[in-house]
Design a protein that fits this description.
transmembrane helix, transferase, Spore Coat Polysaccharide Biosynthesis Protein SpsA, Chain A, 2 domains, alpha/beta, 7-stranded mixed sheet, membrane
């Protein structure tokens, strides 16, 4: 298993301690745009539900996305009347922009959001955030597509939703069931590291956040919900669908090229009880064996197809060498990324050069086998050649795995200064400032009023600190 220094590694998940009554554990954000009619009944209903059922202190934050109607006035009135309500205004539209801005400024350890129409039954709110409070999960989402969910909506929206999630499964290998349900939650320390990697500022924000979290190995909890479609929804389906497909292409390309530093989202070794060190068992051996076998089977099939094609117009030795060379390059690249978890372009040329040395050993085995076959019979059948090559490749495969593991992609945990010992001791970042935030003296995005500017909540004074997709700390430069 490859573990390189990663300043952004997340601490181990732990159950949130019972805090002071004045410190909010949950911050529920309601992003709105021109919702002067629905905002007040939504906030009052949500507040009544939380006050009656939620066992921790909470906050409700209204995130106004540059509304042009009376929404800001309604939000200000609610803030003045209800102690747990805060309002925040941006001068630019975008649900993703609003969530990133407000979540990054919040001091609550659990952050959530829901749509203003309250299409989702509020009885699912406590099951949504409970796994995050207990330390079981990193993110939680409501799912309208789970078997036990009860959903009332038109056939058109049902078809679009299911088609979109099928596209995500086919193109980005997403395993979560519902990307766009407006009912999600995330732990704050996860958001601090994950949000700077999310580029979208609109409706694709949810999907991009979930895909990156899943690819980084974070735990996503799904909650079946009861959901009733809002017939007065102002979402432009065609434009949203187009933007989402463009987002799928962008994220898929970034994942394919390894340009995203997803290792910053890794939990420390030992957070999962299955990660305990076992005497005599090398770290990650089982997972690497499975990955290597899958890559090996596919590359062997690729090699045989190439050999059969080259053999139609050239001799067996040349066809074998050319087919083995091409399949070896593909094999090294696939094992580098999938089996040994090496991302990015660092040392890629060196790894390919070492892979070619391993290829030379395989070439010697297979070429020697063909030479022995040709010495035994002057005109061997094509099927016999393939059988001999398969046997030789099996022997070369075992040697290739050993060389890959010990020489090309060695375990670097012993040499790394940031080796994490298997333990549930949380990793506390040095200094009082989060490594992905920079102090901002002025509210971002043209904010005219922020509930977090110089306002004391409990014992902490929180100032708004913007997080944009490419913000990072120089100390975390990789």
């Amino acid at each position: 298993m490859r573990t390189e220094p990663s300043p952004g590694n997340l601490p181990a998940r732990e159950h949130l301690p019972a805090g002071n009554a004045g410190t909010p554990v949950l911050d529920v954000v309601i992003p709105v745009y021109n919702e002067e009619k629905d905002l007040q009944p939504c906030v009052r209903r949500l507040h009544e539900h939380l006050a009656r059922t939620f066992p921790y202190a909470f906050r409700i934050t209204i995130a106004d996305n540059a509304s042009t109607d009376a929404t800001p006035l309604v939000a200000a009135r609610l803030e003045a009347e209800i102690r747990e309500v805060r309002s925040f205004r941006l001068d630019q539209k975008g649900r993703g922009r609003a969530l990133r801005t407000v979540w990054s400024a919040s001091d609550a350890p659990v952050l959530a959001y829901m749509d203003v129409d309250l299409s989702t039954d509020l009885n699912a709110l406590l099951p949504l955030v409970a796994p995050l409070i207990s330390g079981h999960s990193d993110l939680a989402i409501g799912s309208r597509l789970a078997r036990s969910s009860r959903v009332v909506r038109g056939a058109k929206r049902e078809f679009i939703s299911r088609t979109y999630n099928l596209i995500l499964r086919g193109s980005l290998q997403a395993r979560f069931s519902d990307a766009q349900c407006g009912f999600k939650a995330i732990r704050r320390e996860v958001a601090q590291v994950l949000l700077p990697l999310v580029e979208d500022t609109g409706w694709f924000f949810d999907t991009e956040m979930l895909v990156l979290a899943e690819r980084a190995g974070l735990r996503i909890h799904e909650v079946p919900v009861d959901w009733v479609d809002d017939p007065d929804s102002t979402v432009h389906i065609v434009k949203t669908a187009t933007d989402d497909l463009l987002g799928v292409w962008r994220v898929g390309r970034a994942l394919a090229t390894g340009s995203l530093p997803l290792d910053r989202l890794a939990r420390p070794f030992g957070d999962d009880p299955r990660d305990r060190e076992l005497t005599g068992v090398p770290t990650g051996l089982a997972r690497q064996l499975v990955g290597f076998c899958v890559v090996g089977a596919l590359s062997t099939l690729f090699y045989l197809l190439l050999y059969s094609g080259f053999r139609t117009f050239t001799g067996s030795q040349f066809a074998n060498a050319l087919a083995l060379l091409l399949s070896a390059v593909a094999n090294t690249a696939a094992n580098r990324r999938l089996t040994f978890g090496v991302r990015g372009r660092d040392r890629a040329v060196k790894h390919q050069a070492q892979g070619l040395v391993v290829f030379g050993i395989g070439l010697a085995l297979t070429s020697g086998s063909l030479a022995a076959l040709n010495a035994a019979t002057s005109d061997p059948a094509h099927s016999t050649e393939l059988a001999v090559l398969i046997a030789a490749n099996l022997a070369a495969t075992v040697l290739r795995f050993l060389l890959f593991r010990a020489w090309v992609f060695p375990d670097r945990t012993d040499d790394s200064p940031s080796t994490v010992v298997a333990s549930h001791t949380p990793v506390v970042p040095a200094g009082p400032v989060s490594p992905v935030y920079a102090t901002a003296p002025q509210p971002p995005y043209g904010t005219t009023h922020s509930p977090y500017d110089n306002r004391t909540r409990g014992d902490a004074t929180v100032q708004l600190q913007p997080v944009r997709p490419n913000d990072h700390d120089p100390r975390n430069a990789r």
